Amino acid sequence: MTRAYVALGANLGDRERTLRAAVDALAAEDGIADADEIVVYCGSGVSACVNLLALAVAGRPDAKLYPGSWSDWCARGLPVERG
């Protein structure tokens, strides 16, 4: 199965859904902590809340949630990246 994600986004992949794992994963990604704007998403906006909380714990309380997430993005026919 080919992975796809929101164009202009970074795909952090499937991670263990715990706060500690999310904080560790975000800290390990080059450039994520220093990005001007961070918007997290998942399939429908629910699971991404773990990443949103992890970002706040990691010092980025300004990160945002895309509530419609992947479902909304695809329904609108917006561009996606594959790979």
Q: Care to describe what's here?
A:
The longest helix is centred in the first third of the chain and has 10 residues, at 19-28. The mean pLDDT is 76. Helix 1 crosses helix 2 (48-57). This protein starts with a strand and ends with a strand. It contains three helices and four strands; from the N terminus they run βαβαβαβ. It has 83 residues and is an alpha+beta fold. Helix 2 (48-57) links the parallel strand 2 (39-40) and strand 3 (64-65).
Label this structure with key terms:
3 helices, single chain, alpha+beta, Oxidized Rhodanese, domain 1, 83 residues
Show unreliable segments.
Answer: none
The tally of domains stands at 1
Helix content: 25-40%
Q: Which structural class fits the helix and strand makeup?
A: alpha+beta
* CATH fold call: Oxidized Rhodanese, domain 1
User: What shape does the CA trace take?
Assistant: globular
Tell me, rounded to a whole number, the average pLDDT: 76
The number of strands is 4
CATH class category label: Alpha Beta
* Helix count, DSSP H or I runs of 4 or more residues: 3
| Global Rg | 12 Å
CATH architecture: 3-Layer(aba) Sandwich
User: What percentage of amino acids are in beta strands?
Assistant: 5-15%
Largest sheet: 2 strands, antiparallel
Ends: how far apart? 9 Å
- SSE order, as H and E? EHEHEHE
What is the H level of CATH, i.e. the homologous superfamily? Rhodanese-like domain
What is the topology, as strand order, of the major beta sheet?
A: 1-4
